[in-house]
Amino acid sequence: MVFASPETGVAPRRFVKIILVFYFAVAACGCGASRPVYKSVTPSSRHAFDTININLADSRTLESLPGIGKKTAGRIILYREEFGPFKNTAELMLVEGIGEKQFLKLRSLVRTE
After folding, report:
1. Cβ(109)–Cβ(92) under 8 Å?
2. Is the separation of the CB atoms in 23 and 17 below 8 Å?
3. What is the rounded average pLDDT of the residues 19-41?
4. Which residue has the higher pLDDT, 38 or 74?
5. CATH 1.10.150.320 occupies which residues in the chain?
6. Is 46 helix (H, G, I), strand (E, B) or coil?
7. What is the per-residue pLDDT for 7?
8. How far is CA 54 from the centre of its chain?
9. What's the rounded Cα separation, in Å, for the pair 47 and 13?
10. How far apart are CA 28 and CA 61, in angstroms?
């Protein structure tokens, strides 16, 4: 086998073939650089604009909060309709189903303004 002959140019063609095979192998396995990286969102990594305004949020938005299901989201909206907008986030503890422990999980994820 002639591997490096300047007259035939075998080495460059073989090199290109090896590179192409490697490229497609990496692309096929999904381990290339184009693979998306998913970052988990924790309360400490959220920004102020990522917080949910509990005075404006609909049921579906409230359900996106940890520990808030359909019933609790409905209770938050019902509380808001009966007593007006929340003055501060701590008022969430007045909603049935949200105690101090649950509020501490939500505190950095919600806002009233």
Report:
1. no
2. no
3. 50
4. 74
5. 43-111
6. coil
7. 61
8. 20
9. 52
10. 38
- What average pLDDT does the segment 102-108 reach? 94
Q: What is the CATH number of domain 43-111?
A: 1.10.150.320
- Between CA 78 and CA 83, with CA 80 as vertex, the angle to 5 degrees is 105
Contact 52, 65 (CB under 8 A): yes
3 state SS of 16: helix
Better pLDDT: 10 or 92: 92
> Can you give the pLDDT at residue 42?
46
First to last CA, the chain: 76
Residues 6+ apart with CB under 8 A from 75: 95, 96, 97
Cα–chain-centroid distance for residue 17?
Answer: 40
Query: Phi and psi dihedrals of 55, rounded to 5?
Result: -85, -15
Structure tokens at 78: 């019902």
Q: Distance between CA 25 and CA 64 in Å, rounded?
A: 39
Query: What is the Cα–Cα distance from 4 to 7, expressed in whole angstroms?
Result: 9
pTM, to two decimals? 0.57
